[in-house]
Amino acid sequence: MLKKIIIPVIIFTITSINIIAQTKHNQLRLKDTITDRNIQVPIDADHNLEELLIDWKKKFKHPSNYNPSKDKDIIYPDSTYVNRLYSLPTEMELVYNQIVRSYIDLYSSRRRSSVSYMLGKGKYYFPLIEETLDKYQLPLELKYLPVIESAINPAAVSRAGATGLWQFMLATGRMYDLEVNSLVDERRDPIKATDAAARYLKDLYDIYGDWNLVIAAYNCGPGNVNKAIRRSGGQRDYWAIYPNLPRETRGYVPLFIAATYIMSYHQKHNIQPMEYIYPIAVDTVMVTKNLHFQQVSDLLNIPIEELRDLNPQYKKDIIPGDHKPYSICLPSNIAGQFLTHQDTIFRHKSQDLLTHRKIVEAQGYTTSAKGGQTHKVKRGENLGAIARKYGVTVNQIQRLNNMKSTRINPGKTLIIRQGKPATQQSKTENKKPTETPAATKSDTKKEPTKQAEGSSQDSADTESSAGSFFAEYYKNIQEDDDNTDELLENEDADMEVADSISIDVADTTIAESDDIQVTNRILAEDTQTIYHKVRIGETLLLIANRYNVSTKEIQEWNNIDSKKVSIGQRLKIMLPKKELERMVEARKEAEAQKEADLKLEAEIQKEEEEKRLAEEKKIAEERKVAEEKRIAEEKKRTEERRIAEEKEHREALKQAEARRLLDKNKNGTGTPRQKTITYVVKKGDTLSGIAKRYKGVKVNDIMKASNITSDKLSLGQKLTIPIK
Q1: Structure pTM?
Q2: Of 149, 486, 538, 579, which one is the catalytic site residue?
Q3: CB atoms within 10 A of CB 533
Q4: pLDDT for 607-624, tens place per residue?
């Protein structure tokens, strides 16, 4: 009777266990067997790859061992993919199903060249990303997220406006302290954007506690993921809420899993990384002035495309250093040259490439005497350069500022122009010379030419009110930014001095009565005639301003009626000896000033270099102390291990002797048995090394006693040592 009752109970129990096990198996395999015929590749992933392949051939090349005949995919069974994904040492769950399989096939077949490209670029960007992920204690496999986000392109821009390696939207980027303006977009800065992405991912994980949900939320936003969770009855598993996610996001996690697989096992599919043509070592330099990439490219001989690749955060090739300090990334061999010649680089073509103006005067109006146009002297500037910048002469600046010499100090504020509103000027200009009050020496130079209505000087003076032609002129004649223009630099090339002569008033014919004042002024002093050779970009007004005379005077001296001059034309200029001496003196003063500035700059650089060397020496000493401390600690640990091993050895001998005496007492024969001890294999142990520790013991003795046939040992393995 008891037998009849027990047998059905056993059968029922076994059946129940099988049903429960089958149910549990089905639950575990749901995410592995899921299929979706409506799955699609995220649109931006396709778009970014298309954009990147355009410049692929410019920046990449095949490795030296590339063999086109072997560039073919190998298809593996599902079990192989399952085992490979499962064996990856990842914190994130990388499951396998047919959706993942479809993406693996996509990467390994149709997108083989894209994978080669991303593997090559990953050699440059993955170490940077891994370092940041490790800093925030995030799974390192998240480094493959940019593979599906931007195809590892810092300049990638999606159709929706997401930008950079991590495809930040504008609002999200600013939420994580990424600066975005017309010139700078730090979403494209690999370092800053990666740091922001790591903080964003960490915040998402604090919300969901599941990395698959984190990746889904990164793609479609936490709001859509929360909706899917609610619609799935509160389940917080990606594969459980899968049907309720947006269609594009459904493929996002499987695509990430496939990207992780192909980047880890690309060799199994005969995919070789392309060689990325990038600098091996780079360095960053802080920039505190506005800088254009073209300035760096021209003077340091580095392609502007390479500068853009290294600094993708600058959208218009301009670094707005006047706003705040920014960094520029340069190859290490170029960074040192930049620091050495940075002043020259900042000056090079600055007026052409950096066109923002600080002050613009309205047409027809000149600043008043009280609030006249001023200039604050910067280090390295001289009066000649300042005069040319504003379209005035050195003498005019000297008179306005009561200067006896051309020496100026950095920080000094100079008055450049004094003027009146245009309405007042027109009244003054219409007055006759006899009605004009007694004028200064500089005023009488040009006043007669202003009084002659319809003269060539009228239109020339209107042109000079803006002063912008000076920038164009000096842009054309500038040959070397290292050589700052001086007032009479290269004098022999464009000015020839004639013999000193004295001119008598009676020998001079006056063309117009209005010119009497100017002519008397010239003839009242001993003069010296010089000849000016017209250079490219020069006008009659420019030449007149250079020598502090009027265009009318130059026309009279050279018997010409037109304002037009030709390149190479020699023009006679008559200057008072004192004026010429003052100009030559100004050149000498400017040269002396330049020499003093260079000396000061050299002293500053020397001081900075000494400071840098002292800092490097301090760092080297600190490293030396740290290294000595490390060696001492390592020596201490080695000694402690040796003492411990000796103690262990003595203890083993003691135990062996005790066993021998015990065996002797049991046998009663007095014949000792073979003594043995047990040894646990430690890191770095070999059979020969272990045998040497015990006198008379050979490797074969240990192998025989331990019943092993190979000399390969594993950590923690127990060996039997026969003691003789």
Answers
A1: 0.49
A2: 149
A3: 15
A4: 888 888 898 899 889 989
